[in-house]
Amino acid sequence: MMDTDLAIVGAGPAGMAAAIEAGRLGLKTVLLDEQPRVGGQIYRNIGQPSMADPRILGPDYYAGRTLADDFIDSGCRYLPNTQVWQLDRDGRVYYSREGKAASLQARQVMIANGAQERPFPIPGWTLPGVMTAGSAQILLKTPGLAADGAVFAGCGPLLYLVVWQYLQAGVKVAAVLDTTPAANYRQALVALDGVLRGVGYLWKGLKLLRDIRAAGIPFVRGVTELAASAEDGVLSRVTYQAGGRQQQLETEQLFLHQGVVPSVNLAMASGCEHEWSEQQLCWQPVLDDWGQSTQPHIRIIGDGGGIGGAVAAALKGRLAVQQLAVQQLAHTLGRQTLAERDEGARALRRQLKREMAFRRFIDLLYRPSDALRLPQQDEVLVCRCEEVSLGEIRRAVNQGCMGPNQLKSFTRCGMGPCQGRQCGLVVSELMARLQGQTVEQGGYYRLRAPIKPLTLNELASLVQPPEPGLRE
């Protein structure tokens, strides 16, 4: 006996859109999410924005309000503050909520847990006062906090957006240190056809940069050799190379960003195959055009299946439900015909094609340099949790360590609370380079459940009654 037709993990654009479409087709759906409110990272806290002035976060953020309202009206069972820590290949979902663990059985599971920021392993990146640009945005969207006089460093649309949001909030930004390699501008020219089809995004980006410059915020291009240093254990200055000169800025807050990558831990631990994307320099799940993974009961939607942005994520969620409804559920129950699915899918695919047209240009333009994507000095930490440095990894390889999984035995790298989320990408590339292999040959950590920290008390509570309305 099934508890639900469809279980969705993640309440961002993809998860909400999938739940709305499932409700339209009459499918019994449960959505589980770690956050107290829907929205994911892009639309975080959209139901109760922390900023009274909507101009601060901008129209793209508030576009999520309609999606969130439609989700609330969809009839989907919603479990906030819920941490999914295991997903079986047959569709059983294990989770913790309010200090207790429970499980539910679904015919199909959709993983919609989105993306995370790429690691930025420079000297000093683990110092107090150094965070990601995404963290700066979370502080704006949730408690409405900002760091006055911060330095923003890196490249990519999110970096410029957060600086622009700081500007709208009237918060001083000390400088923007742009690390986009000069060669990227030339290499991105091969994707100009996508620029023409996504010209709206181009104008949005140009407007952000124009407003930043008009506000008089120092904007330094061609930054290399970025490093953070401390005084009394806390960030005090940022040093960098630009224009052939070594320079420095005094600051107590540094926000780093060089793109986002799919969150892969849950999908990998569930046995879904992944492959290395040379275009986006990250691991991506192997999916068909409908989001179906290599596990028959698991689909992956949104940015977790490949970075495309909020609108594309929502479209991917709707498409996956369209196919799921026909293959597994609604077609057999007479709720939707193949012809109806294909007709609805054509319109969605046209929209998705338009949304994704600009993606290759963005990936080429803001491809992070090797020198900033991978640590260069032996003392730089790679694994923050276990404090494993580049030098220790080199020594492990010299002693015969063969790959990321064996590296755990040599150094404990990747065995901390984050379970490789902050070091996995870096370790994959480092180990491949040190051993003269491709990243595909070197592979990634072998991930196992639970993918999030789980107390014995929570585990023991699995024998207790499940959530009301859901079987154990």
Automatic annotation (TrEMBL):
CDD domains: GlpA-like_Fer2_BFD-like. Gene3D superfamilies: BFD-like [2Fe-2S]-binding domain, FAD/NAD(P)-binding domain. Residues 5-313 form the FAD/NAD(P)-binding domain. GO terms for molecular function: oxidoreductase activity. It comes from the Bacteria. InterPro entries: BFD-like_2Fe2S-bd_dom_sf, FAD/NAD-bd_sf, FAD/NAD-binding_dom, Metab_Enz_Cyan_OpOx_G3PDH, Opine_Oxase_asu/HCN_bsu, SoxA_A3. Keywords: Oxidoreductase. Residues 382-460 form the SoxA A3 domain. Pfam families: Pyr_redox_2, SO_alpha_A3. The keyword Cell division does not apply. PANTHER family: ANAEROBIC GLYCEROL-3-PHOSPHATE DEHYDROGENASE SUBUNIT B (PTHR42949:SF3). This is FAD/NAD(P)-binding oxidoreductase. It comes from Oceanisphaera arctica.
